[in-house]
Amino acid sequence: MRPLFGGESRNRGRTTLCAFPSSTTPQEKQELLKNLIACPNHEKEEVVYLCKDHDKTCCFKCAIADHRKCEEVKVICDILNYLQVKTVLIDFQQQGERL
Ligand SMILES: [Zn+2]
Ligand SMILES: [Zn+2]
């Protein structure tokens, strides 16, 4: 699987968030964002951690089960803030292009 995070700034225009069709409503974006932060193994759980050792996001259940021995497991809320800010920035850019 492709890593969710990392190397994004070098791949502008090719991230998941950039793939929103221009007709996407804010609600739909929220849904997509939710899917993006849902744990692949536990769909009811939000990912809370980013394991740098595996380059994977995971929920707390996965963190306990799979990443207990990993050295770099980071809480993800900072990254989510970053993603949301980025989404807003992309909107802004797309509006700018239409003008
Ligand atoms: Zn999980
Ligand atoms: Zn890990």
Automatic annotation (TrEMBL):
GO terms for molecular function: zinc ion binding. It comes from the Eukaryota. Residues 34-75 form the B box-type domain. The keyword DNA-binding does not apply. Keywords: Metal-binding, Zinc, Zinc-finger. This is B box-type domain-containing protein.
